[in-house]
Amino acid sequence: MKKLLVVAAAALAVCAHAQTYPSKPITIVVPFAAGGPTDRVARDLAEALRKPLGGVSIIVDNSAGAGSSIGSNKVAKAAPDGYTLLLNHIAMATMPTLVRNMPFKVDSDFEYLGLINEVPMTLIGRPDHPAKNFKDLTGWIAQNKGKINLGNAGIGSASHLCGLLFQNAVATDMTTVPYKGTAPAMTDLIGGQIDLMCDQTTNTTQQIEGKKVVAYAVTTPKRLTTPALKDLPTLQESGLKGFEVTIWHGLYAPAGTPADVLTKVNAALKVALKDADFLKKEEGLGAVVVTDKRVEPAEHKKFVAAEIAKWSPIIKAAGVYAD
Question: How far apart are the C-alpha atoms of 20 and 258, rounded to whole Å?
């Protein structure tokens, strides 16, 4: 009888929690540095989520490092009550291969809440780069083998992954320069300390529009319609057949979070993804907000599993690790 009472009390507590959720501020952990493209998506989404979650405060917490595994582990080990969430990008699919001795499992230590957006990438160069278009760039690369510096936002970052593919595509090894986030990498690119970088449109569009960098191409199969990027060719049409990289972002909660809470967050996410201000901000940065079935938790998880299978052999072939 006593055991039944304990179980009943626990069930009532969970139910009461779900009914009152959220009753205090929610933290969205971003496993990358402040000022970068994923941080920007998180802050825009946090604002869009506030209204459908009853006006609650939403705090963005940047916990960068180790291929995003530090911030991700913070959420995996957090109380499963819906007040600590994770916003991560394609790293959810690369960490299982990229990070050795990872302290959590991507497939079982998180509840999947839905995909948010897909972000194209752009290949850009320092503002004084002698090559002003992709054809000239290929010639410059051929003439400067062993002297090219390719920046990225850190091992496991989107820019790092794109850089790996680009080096393979042009059959040229470059000196990879990892930074602690996209912001310092962009600063050095604009300052001429590095030659090239491949990064998300959420971080490069304003720099391209302001002519602070040289833009060569986008990584999508078709040209983009964003005003600042619409004249850029794709890498495929520029000669790199099959070159396609799109960085996606998703939302996660610790495993064991009550089902009713997950339902509330997923419902709020769907509303946020239709928010006019959020859509305008994403469109202006070249990002495409997800509207298909991947906004559903089960489809989100299935999609990530397929991405793990896609990126694992690429990372293994490159022999890089984020520990």
Answer: 12
What's the pTM?
0.80
Of the candidates 242, 221, 199, 217, the residue with the CA atom closest to the CA atom of residue 133: 217
Residue 138 DSSP code: H
Average pLDDT in the chain: 91
Exposure b/e, 271-306, CB count within 10 A at least 16 = b? ebbebeebbebbebbbbbbbeeebbbbeebbebbee
Question: Could you give the CA distance from residue 72 to residue 64 in angstroms, rounded to a whole number?
Answer: 9
The strand pairing partners of 123, in sequence order, are 198, 217
Q: Residue 3 pLDDT > 80, yes or no?
A: no
Q: Per residue in 44-64, pLDDT tens?
A: 999 999 999 999 999 999 998
Contact assessment for residue 252 and residue 75, using Cβ atoms and an 8 Å cutoff: yes
Q: Is-contact 306 300, C-beta < 8 A?
A: no
Q: What pLDDT score was predicted for residue 1?
A: 52
The DSSP secondary structure of 148-171, one letter per residue, reads -EEEESSTTSHHHHHHHHHHHHTT
pLDDT value for 273: 98
Strand stretches in 84-137, DSSP E? 84-88, 110-125
End-to-end CA distance of the chain: 51
The number of CA neighbours under 13 Å toward the Cβ of 249 is 29
Which domains are delineated in the chain?
2-119+247-318 (3.40.190.150), 120-218 (3.40.190.10)
C-beta separation of 38 from 88 below 8 A: yes
Q: How many residues in the chain?
A: 323
Query: What's the average model confidence in pLDDT over 163-191?
Result: 92
Cα separation, 71 vs 87, in Å, equals 10
- Which is it for strands 84-88 and 149-152: parallel, antiparallel or unpaired? unpaired
